[in-house]
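In response to the reviewer comment on reproducibility (Comment 2.3), we provide here a single inverse folding case reported in full, input and output, so that an independent group could reproduce the run without further information from us. The structure tokens appear first.
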């Protein structure tokens, strides 16, 4: 098993895939002007011999929730604008 940057060992591709998905989501949110401060992998779901890894979106303040909602609304319009944070 390969060790990831966090020190977790990847069982198959589960954890590695989850890390890539987390990073992809973080990059997309950043491009939309949104940062989820608690975005991470759920440690409990990484445990066991066959982990079912979850990406934990975490908690955010009200301003970030509004920014995320605005970014999602803009998704279909093809426009990008700075959203309040």
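Designed residues, in position order:
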């Amino acid at each position: 098993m390969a060790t990831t940057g966090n020190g977790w060992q990847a069982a198959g591709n589960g954890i590695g895939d989850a890390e890539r998905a987390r990073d992809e989501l973080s990059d997309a949110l950043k491009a939309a002007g949104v940062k989820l401060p608690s975005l991470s992998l759920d440690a409990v779901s990484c445990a066991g011999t066959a982990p079912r890894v979850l990406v934990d979106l975490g908690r955010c303040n009200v301003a970030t929730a509004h920014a995320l909602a605005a970014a999602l609304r803009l998704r279909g319009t093809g426009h990008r604008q700075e959203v309040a944070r």
